[in-house]
Amino acid sequence: MDxxxxxxxxxxxxxxxxxxxxxLRWDQETYMPERAIEERAEQVALLQGMVHDRIVDxxxxxxxxxxGMSEKTKMGPSGVDDETRGFLREAFRRxxxxxxxxxxxxxxxxxxxxxxxAEWVRARKASDFKLFKPYLAKxxxxxxxxxxCQGYAESVYDPLLDEYEPWMTTGELxxxxxALRARLVPLVEKIRGSAVDAxxxxxxxSFPADKQRAFGLTLLRAxxxxxxxxxxDVSAHPFTTTLGRDDVRxxxxxxxxxxxxxxxxxxxxxxxxxxxxxxxxxLRGSLLASGASLGIHESQSRLWENLIGRSRAFWTAFFPxxxxxxxxxxxxxxxxxxxRAVNAVSPSLIRVEADEVTYNLHIILRFTLEKKIFTGELAxxxxxxxxxxxxxxxxxxxxxxxxxxxxxxxxxxxxxxGYFPTYTLGNLAAAQFFTALKRKHPDVEEEIGQGxxxxxxxxxxxxxxARGSVYPAQDLLAHVTGERLNAGHFIDxxxxxxxxxxxx
Length: 504
Ligand code: ZN
Known about the structure:
Elements: H1 3-30, H2 37-56, H3 58-66, H4 82-100, H5 103-126, H6 129-150, H7 158-164, H8 170-193, H9 209-223, E1 230-234, E2 240-244, E3 247-252, H10 260-277, H11 294-308, H12 312-322, H13 327-330, H14 335-341, H15 359-375, H16 383-395, H17 421-440, H18 444-449, H19 454-463, H20 473-481, H21 488-502
Parallel strand pairs: 1-3
Antiparallel strand pairs: 2-3
Helix pairs in contact: 1-2, 1-3, 5-6, 8-21, 9-10, 10-11, 11-17, 12-14, 15-16, 15-17, 17-21
Bound molecules: zinc ion.
Zinc ion is lined by residues 268, 272, 298, 301.
């Protein structure tokens, strides 16, 4: 067997182990009885150890050497086809990250994460940051050590961001977010000053869960999500996970007194699911069968959820199918009124409840604080106060309780610093992809208005999904849309849509 074939064989085994871990985790989030958690954690840890051993196996180093891969050639060798280059780049990246991190640090991080998460639950309940603070401080210290092991050219935040958004630097991210902020803050101020009431109260009427599920499945089919290669289940926190080449699991949750949660959640997760189902045949079963980055993955879910799912054209087509399911709640509502209600804008404290206009301000807030925490500009004691100051500046509101501010998200307790920005990168990339799609298919909105979503699905599949992670995220964007990430497309979209909705 030649070196490349052997490396691919090894990658295949790593993927099979990883999917086995994902099956155990999916079960844990959906059907596992509560008391099974202890042994489940052992099962997962054992498999994770096996994955780690395979990745850092000395034979891997020999194989990379034989294939000319080193830190200097980490973007992949030239003179090979794009898929081989992508495969070697991604495989070396995975290897190099693990090999640079001492085992003791990995173990200490894992242990601290589970302790921190448990303490975060308690602290959040008590709404008391002081309880969580020592754990957060410990996590930050360990992650700084991790960043030093990985090495970086400019910012200690670079290796953290790179975990979730490969190859993007903090400097590049800062520029993108600054451009967004400069136009977003004034837009939110204008909308706050508008006298228009979007009428969102209709969404809190009574919506039986079984009908919500039926409608969600109708939308999944219209989007082209293949239910013979996937499922929709229920979990406390909606997510998508891939358990095998032909097994993509989505989850959502139902609230009978708040319509948008389950339906937009299902559209969002199905956007992720279509990506996972759409990898090209030659990539399936290898590490290239994955999103180009978390930001690109999120661009697919948000494109479907917001640019399609919250559009006037979409509800022109689907409101007539929705209304008969909820005769009591929607008897006096028409498609236009419904469209306005699902696009209500209201600056609030809680990120996961935010509308698509204010959402990214929540992310800018978190990124600003994360960066300062890691560069040492912000002391742990001052984090809640800094949160309040930024919140007031960006959103015009500030939390009275830690629960509604610094303790609201699970991410930090999991040590996931550098993760939040990918949500905004996803929103921006979604608008950029949709602009490119409309350039090629100027009539696409008319088609959506007739309930036909195939042009969108097929375009995304051909240009984004089929390519998996063959190209780095920004190269893919440039390839498909003609430029690297540009916040202008997203903000143009917001100004047009919400200018009309709010008369601003
Ligand atoms: Zn998502």
